[in-house]
């Protein structure tokens, strides 16, 4: 398999490796038929989840955890563990290719019906959200800058204050 574009991006004087693709368009890659099939299966393949003792897949595992009402920190751990276990590759440079190829293969598969398409988009959005949280602040800032998304960095104390103030009105309605 050969990658056509570089995976490295320069940010100021530092080089950082982008590990979170945005799937805007399929890359011009030469993919063996075996890899095409295996990468998609890996994204959906079952693995033993020691926490629950049942078989999970990346997208199905996310779906099940959301339906069980998992908390954000539990979801983050689940996504990180599932991703590491299932989407790993013997060659570190191929992990990105595997991610991109498997995404586009499943995108083709899940576009058959509106219901499948909605499920796939919902799970991929959730996967992106938690993978974004796992990235370093440098990578997060680079991604935000690439799309000219305005944001204001807040300290942990300010974040907790905002989080508390947004939860207080909800408690009034629950009583």
UniProtKB/TrEMBL annotation:
<dbReference type="GO" id="GO:0051539">
    <property type="term" value="F:4 iron, 4 sulfur cluster binding"/>
</dbReference>
<dbReference type="Pfam" id="PF26466">
    <property type="entry name" value="DNA_primase_lrg_N"/>
</dbReference>
<dbReference type="InterPro" id="IPR007238">
    <property type="entry name" value="DNA_primase_lsu_euk/arc"/>
</dbReference>
<dbReference type="GO" id="GO:0046872">
    <property type="term" value="F:metal ion binding"/>
</dbReference>
<dbReference type="GO" id="GO:0005658">
    <property type="term" value="C:alpha DNA polymerase:primase complex"/>
</dbReference>
<dbReference type="GO" id="GO:0006270">
    <property type="term" value="P:DNA replication initiation"/>
</dbReference>
<dbReference type="GO" id="GO:0006269">
    <property type="term" value="P:DNA replication, synthesis of primer"/>
</dbReference>
<protein>
    <recommendedName>
        <fullName>DNA primase large subunit</fullName>
    </recommendedName>
</protein>
């Amino acid at each position: 398999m050969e990658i056509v574009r570089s995976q490295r991006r320069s940010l100021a004087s530092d080089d950082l490796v982008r590990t979170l693709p945005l799937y805007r368009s399929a890359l011009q890659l030469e993919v063996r038929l075996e890899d095409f099939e295996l990468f998609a299966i890996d994204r959906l393949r079952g693995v033993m989840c020691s926490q629950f003792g049942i078989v999970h897949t990346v997208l199905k595992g996310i779906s099940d955890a959301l339906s069980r009402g998992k908390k954000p920190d539990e979801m983050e751990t689940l996504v990180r563990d599932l991703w590491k276990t299932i989407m790993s590759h013997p060659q570190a440079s191929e992990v990105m290719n595997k991610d991109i190829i498997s995404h586009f293969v499943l995108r083709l598969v899940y576009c058959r019906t509106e219901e499948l398409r909605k499920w796939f988009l919902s799970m991929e959005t959730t996967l992106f959200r938690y993978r974004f949280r796992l990235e370093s602040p440098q990578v997060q800032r680079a991604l935000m800058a690439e799309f000219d998304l305005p944001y204001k960095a807040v300290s942990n104390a300010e974040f907790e204050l905002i989080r508390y103030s947004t939860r207080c009105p909800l408690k009034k309605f629950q009583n």
